[in-house]
Write a structure and sequence with these properties.
The structure is a homodimer of 141-residue chains. The first copy, chain A, has 2 domains: 5-83, Winged helix-like DNA-binding domain superfamily/Winged helix DNA-binding domain (Arc Repressor Mutant, subunit A, Orthogonal Bundle); 89-139, Dna Ligase, domain 1 (2-Layer Sandwich). Chain A is 39% helix and 21% strand. Chain A is built from 5 helices and 5 strands, in the order ααααβββββα. Chain A has helices spanning 5-13, 20-31, 38-48, 54-67, 131-139, and strands at 71-73, 81-83, 89-94, 100-104, 118-129. The first copy, chain A, starts with a helix and ends with a helix. Strand 5 (118-129) of chain A pairs antiparallel with strand 5 (118-129) of chain B. Chain B binds a DNA duplex (30 and 30 nucleotides) through residues 17-22, 37-39, 51-56, 58-60, 63, 77, 79-80.
DNA sequence: AACGAGATCAAGAATAATTCTAATTAAGTA
DNA sequence: TACTTAATTAGAATTATTCTTGATCTCGTT
């Protein structure tokens, strides 16, 4: 699979080599954007690259996160999930079906923090019920 | 230690019994607001209640979170930390010293989500460097 | 194209966080 | 007080993540 030069540039800019394994892990994340866990990425990667190991998947994810190509999604006491959406966005967690959806951030929020803080990253996570689950329950009445 | 009736009310309103262990765990979280992990809460609780077990600490934290008295703080691939601040606020993680600070949310942001989502909770987490670490580095020059 | 240095990988062991199990104890209620 | 149910304890079990070591690959230089 051919990745855009944007991706390769971003990796090399972070001093990170583009290896077949990292390419594969990134491809998995771009293919199905359902925010898989490391183990799920591992299972999917093995289909095309049967020799890849779980430790390597973790290493690749670390490298991709460090380069800014991948974001981690942290939910309550659940395994970390990963996301290849480069656009500025936040996450919605459906407590009924467990899905995580990307939410395009409409406006860049002007956070007002107390003086003296240097903010490098802001992360917004919503929790509730997704449209599919709300509809499903309505039709059950 | 005597807890305010507000707390007891909130617990019973959630159908959760107020036990000595839950009282102790909550007291620990209110005493030092440094967002400890479950294991840290366990260690601190043992000082006043030597027989408490780690499983109980987890159970108590679950109960307190369910009642809304305690919030979980999720950071990248780190153990979950806990927070007893009832006021609407967000969290700042200092990537230099590892501290987590409560940030009073200045304005309630009017989130605009796509239609059909039911949002029950919104969580904002910042990452960067805290005032103390920025000052420390300046004085090292 | 071959070479060497350093980064990366694979496999499995090790660690750490969290959950589960089963027996005992405590809380709320008649 | 006796009963019923929920909560606690201790330790085993599970799960997520990290570490270790030797083999392999990549890249920049010949």
């Amino acid at each position: 699979m051919r990745l855009s030069s944007d991706v390769t540039n971003r990796l090399t800019a972070s001093g990170i080599r583009l290896t077949r394994q990292r390419e594969e892990v990134l491809a998995v994340l771009m293919q199905k954007r359902d925010h898989p866990t490391a183990v799920e990425v591992f299972i999917r990667s093995k289909k095309h690259m049967p020799t890849i190991s779980l430790a390597t998947v973790y290493n690749c994810l670390d490298a991709l996160v460090a380069s800014g190509l991948v974001k981690q999604v942290n939910l309550d006491r659940a395994p970390t999930r990963y996301c290849a959406n480069l656009l500025d966005h936040s996450h919605f967690f459906c407590e009924e079906c467990g899905a995580v959806h990307d939410i395009e951030t409409p406006v860049h929020q002007p956070w007002t923090l107390p003086a003296g803080y240097l903010v490098k990253q802001a992360e917004v996570t919503f929790r509730g019920r997704c449209p599919a689950c709300i509809n499903k329950n309505l039709s059950n009445l």
